[in-house]
Write a structure and sequence with these properties.
38% helix; 19 strands; 678 residues
Amino acid sequence: MRTIKGAAIAACALVAGLGPVQAQTRQETAPPPVAKAVVPAANPAAAPAVAPSAAPALTKADVDLWLDGYMPYALRTGDIPGAVVTVVKDGQILTTRGFGYADRDKKTPVDPYKTLFRPGSISKLFTWTAVMQQVEAGKIDLDADINTYLDFKIPPRNGKPVTTRQLMTHTAGFEEVVKELIFYGKPEPELGAYLKNHVPKRIFDAGETPAYSNYGTALAAYIVERVSGEKFQDYLDRHVMGPLKLENTTFRQPLPANLVGHDATGYDKPGKPSKGFEIVGPFPAGSASSTGADMGRFMIAHLQGGELDGQRILSAETARVMHDSPVDRVNPRSLIGPLDRMELGFFQTSINGRTVIGHLGDTEGFHSSLHLYMNDGVGLYLSLNSGGREGAAGVLRTAIFRDFSDRYLPPVAGAPDGKVDAKTAAEHAKAMAGTWDVSRRADSTFLSLFYMMGQAKVAVGPKGELIVPSILGPNGRPKEWVEIAPYVWREVGGHDRLAAQVVDGKPVRWSWDFGSPFMVFDRIPAGQDGAWLLPAIAASVGVLLLTFLYWPVVALVRRRYKTKADISGKALTASRAARAGAGLLLALIVGWGVGVTKLTSSAAAMAGGMDGVLLLLQGLGWVVLPLALAAAGWNLWLTWTDGRGWVRKAWSVVMLLAPLLLLYVAVTFHLLAMSVHY
């Protein structure tokens, strides 16, 4: 789960929380053919060839010593108050450790057996477990139209309904919904009411495109409610938490009486006070509170095929299908070459040639990760109670997973990577260059403008290498990539792979291991390409500013030198009207800027507290844009018909183009939609 705040609106393509940082055509009726030669001959899932080394034994003594050297320094340098880490192995909790403070101000230490962290979207794994229980019971068909189970309708797109399997693989085609995602100080909405009030537009055909969706998870939980006859929190208590004896785990918001006072404090920003206990609107997507020890038991149950201490939450066969879902049930367009993919609720995070599945989770105050090494009987869980300084939490959770893997579960034997000659690699990098649209985005609301501002750029380096500026390494610099097979790259000195789908010899879609299970990048239609739109918008605002400021500056000069305007009558009136229109447009742009800043910095605003302001801004757009455009057009007509010079004629054209471009942007990115559904 992840909220969308400030610059994160534009960058959400690059994260995978409750909210996990973009398509060439948006109305394709069938997936295009995928080129056959995108998978290298060598096994790309295998780690690069390395000299074998003796890995330390994964024992409590060794991992505790390692964590004692790793975590305190990472928390201090990252400005993160506290953390919990749990490692399980062979059906037992090997170690569960608390580091730092559950409450920074009270200096309350983290207790891994009592302190509740908020794992964010890792909560989804509990929800998906509940769904699979009902699949096992025969009450849910993974491939049936979900409308079969609902008391409201999810409209089809291009005749294709949504299935539960597509909800679990984030391929239902929903656009991003952020309203009422996280807020404070008011009750969570009733699940059915939330879903009916926030039905998102479907921007992709079912099954074709991974696009992470908190709404889709909440919808699956509602299906469980309807087929089981139990409220979802009650269902989890009875059928998941109860059998596993997770006595310190709950989805309830606020916390039940027996857990009050045990929760860690989440901090949105380092050094700033906590906003309090977060309420997740689509609660099945991210509302869990749990201890490190309870998360260890949950991991063990899944590692053991749905069983713990003689209690089964899933049959072995159901667990197998969940953890290794059939590839033949997945639309090829949703898969990219050799990259990691979605299972049923889990996503692959394979490393060092080992089969790993897991999930990430983010709220405003907590950042977490969970990884299950399925063939090694090992699980790793981390939760942090702050994003830290400059996104340190994201760096830390990735680093600890990779460093833990390299230390205790190093590369297994496998074929080494292939290699592509320098000329071909340069040609392929050039073919990838351009601006790309992330699939996890808002398309039909005003938020689409801010996603446009964060479109992914791919470039070619001075040596012909591939450069993706938005994919950063732990050092804060863009990762370096080397092509190991046609349109398959590996991170230099790292684990990630990046690959593209190729159609008719051209790359049309790409992703990389971290993002590929739940989001992909597609070519952008020319009319929505930020590569030219952003400079054009900046130029238009500059024209409006110069046009408006010319008015008072010239007035002051004329007053100083006691001169009169060199035009009069209709020409003077039209000129003043055009300048007034420019001023009104500037005021509207400032209004949107202030409004969006407030919206993205306030949970109360994001929960609907600014609906009136947003409607006012959209309504003013309907008035100000046509008036400014009409005034600029009138001024253009008179300037070109009354014999004025070419400089003024040229500027009158520019004065018309500026509001015309802004009107295009307002219509294209839904700033006139008169809607507060976002």
